[in-house]
Amino acid sequence: MDKTNVMRLLDGMGIPYTPRSYPADGSVPSGVEAARLMGEDPSHVFKTLVTQGASRRYYVFVIPVAEELSLKKAAAVVGEKSVAMLKSKDLLPLTGYVHGGCSPIGMKKPFPTAVDETVELCDTVIFSAGKIGYQVEMTPADLQRAISCTLADLTV
User: What is the DSSP letter of 101?
Assistant: First the structure.
């Protein structure tokens, strides 16, 4: 497996992880499908969502793949009146990642990030390694060491 930038950043921080992958044939599977392809419980596989607040600031939310982000809860967590999902076409220029390969680690700029509190129920968590088909698995504590984040109730 090729190393992604996320993996190189984790190596540089001395944070342990296990590389994971699923077959990517050019299409972007849903997060639940990616979990199935890896033989994993979707409650342990998380997706990275980027939003923009009413203030025009950007925020990152990391939630289980089978769940839906509560925009109301997300806005409250970051102190915004409202947040809206970033348009897919704006993701690459802003973060350096494409839809389906967005990771909370290694974005072009750091953005305020919140991770769903259910991450604490997981021994390990799996999320994108920054490229479609590539994932990393690590402990929730190591994820919190890798990124500055808050834990919160974020789902509907």
Answer: -
CB atoms within 10 A of CB 141: 11
Closest residue by Cα to residue 27 from 126, 98, 108 = 98
Kindly give the pairing relationship between strand 58-64 and strand 113-116: parallel
pLDDT of amino acid 28: 87
Helix (H, G, I), strand (E, B) or coil at 37: helix
CA–CA separation, 69 vs 34, rounded Å? 18
**Which of 74, 77, 86, 87 lies closest to 156 in space, CA to CA?**
74
**Rounded Cα–Cα distance for residues 136 and 140 (Å):** 12
Residue 71: the pLDDT is: 98
Q: For residue 91, count other CB atoms closer than 10 A to its CB.
A: 20
pLDDT per 10-residue tile (average), the chain, 156 residues: 94 98 87 96 98 98 98 98 97 96 97 98 98 97 97 98
Residue 128 CB-half CA count within 13 A: 28
Interstrand relation of 18-21 and 46-53 (parallel, antiparallel or unpaired): unpaired
Distances (CA, A) of 34 to 41, 94, 103: 10, 24, 15
What is the predicted pLDDT for the residue at 106?
A: 97
